[in-house]
Amino acid sequence: MRILVLGGTVFLSRAVAAAAVARGHDVTAACRGASGPLPDGVRHVPLDRAAARPAEVDAAIGPRSGTAYDVVVDVARRPSWVRAAVSAVPAAHWVLVSTINVYPDTATPGGTPATLALRDPLTSDEDPADGPEAYGAMKVACEQTVQALTASASVVRPGLIVGPGDPSGRFTYWPARMARVAEGEPEVLAPGDPDDRVQVVDVRDLADWLVTLAEGRTVGTFDGTGPALTREALLLEVAAGVGVEPRLTWVGQEVLEAEEVQPWSGPRSLPLWLPLPEHAGMLDHDVSASLEAGLAVRPLAETARDTLTWLRTTPDAAVTGLTATEERSVLDAWHARTR
């Protein structure tokens, strides 16, 4: 099968290209080639989607390129990029990587693509850094283009993608923090309640599944994340992967907010923690349909182990979250309140 990956050098798109080559497919990556090396065995077609006019996109990947693709995998978030690429390769099966940010409702647990409403589409190109609202609305527009104008399409809406190569540094915080247990910092600040629900997906598992959907030319819309589990189970799995036994100290939301701990990511944050109840459903989707469609997930301990290995061999790897000093300060504040 001839597979065109729009991207191919960073995180998920790179993992897709690698997985497709490993399964014997003829893989081409259309990208600038400036963000890192392509996996071995992937042919490179230079294409800067930010600068290319539609005619230039067509020349690079459309019929004039001399290659007819069976499948296109696209991770783009800008509607104009998707429109141009779809116009160039409409006869292929498309696998579009979207996002759970297409759903404005982040409060309802157990949501699925069949039960959750979508944001209104935003067809103009805006800065995704403006927030999840604009990002999600642009992805809705991308989905609609692919579903309306291609031969067939799989739309996958990932949640938090984790594992080696993660440029966000969110999940990476936890293997890095657990590693400090073995260095004399056994007390680990755990946010919220042990039974809070969370879910993630290893980038390699997601990539393998995207290739499976491509091979089957599967038509449908799916949430692309692993099954939900409790926050305590997640942290203990991470600890097991790192090979430590932490002492988890659960600090409630009121104290975290009083100590100005930020949710999700960024400076002074605790990654994977989100305020409740307004975000109780964001990391608690029902992914039964995705599992039935072939998504297979590895043990989270394996993801944590491999993420730590990657972190230790990648000096410039991103890690977000509390510093050791900030964590100690919050823990001290918690203990002072509970004496």
Automatic annotation (TrEMBL):
Gene3D superfamilies, sorted: NAD(P)-binding Rossmann-like Domain
Pfam families: Epimerase
Signal peptide feature range: 1-19
GO cellular component: cytoplasm
GO MF terms, alphabetically ordered: aldehyde dehydrogenase (NAD+) activity
Domain of life: Bacteria
Name of this protein: Nucleoside-diphosphate-sugar epimerase
Organism the protein comes from: Nocardioides perillae
